[in-house]
Design goal:
The protein is of the alpha+beta class. The chain contains four helices and six strands. It has a six-stranded antiparallel beta sheet, covered by helices on one side. Helix 1 crosses helix 4. The relative contact order is 0.21.
Length: 165
């Protein structure tokens, strides 16, 4: 899928997303890493660990869904104002193959950015030991802009940065 060209409303969008990711409890528990942050597009990687597996030794489906939700939400986050935040309204996911692999790569792409609601496409691939990737899930999500309601995690990070100055 081709990346689209969006103009961010906040020039510090990447920093805001990193702060949100670094200060979110579930994000830390999940253990995914932000690898690409561009206007309307985000990629994350999640290495396999036993705690993320299901009964056949694959990535558990909820983990795949969580990664899809994160990349869709953060792709949307790249296009909002500094004092706004994002809330997932819904997402639909199709599991297309078992989440077998050493690493998951999630890719979130904004399809349409509205004033209040944004639609994103999310794809998750499992990287195999030989380096090949299998497309394991395709999702589409709806994300709502929370106007003048900053991300709590990003606000905490901003306060902590100001204290160290």
């Amino acid at each position: 899928m081709a990346r689209t060209n969006f103009e961010p409303r906040n020039p510090n969008y990447a920093e805001l997303i990193r702060d949100s990711h670094d200060n979110t409890g579930f994000g830390k528990t999940l253990g995914a890493t932000l690898t690409v942050i561009e206007p309307g597009y985000v990629e994350m990687e999640l290495p396999f660990r036993y705690e993320l597996s299901q009964h056949h030794g694959f990535f558990q489906g909820g983990v795949i869904g969580a990664l899809a939700d994160y990349v869709g939400g953060y792709a949307t986050y790249t296009l909002i104002e500094e004092n706004d935040s994002i809330l997932t309204v819904e997402y639909k996911i199709n599991m297309m193959a078992p989440g077998a692999g050493e690493l998951l790569i999630g890719k979130g792409t904004v399809l349409r950015a509205g004033r209040r609601v944004t639609i994103a496409r999310m794809d998750v691939h499992a990287v195999q030991t030989d380096g090949s990737a299998v497309h394991v899930a395709a999702a589409q999500g709806t994300f709502m802009r929370m106007e003048n309601k900053p991300d709590v995690a990003a606000t905490i990070a901003k306060i902590q940065k100001n204290k160290t100055k």
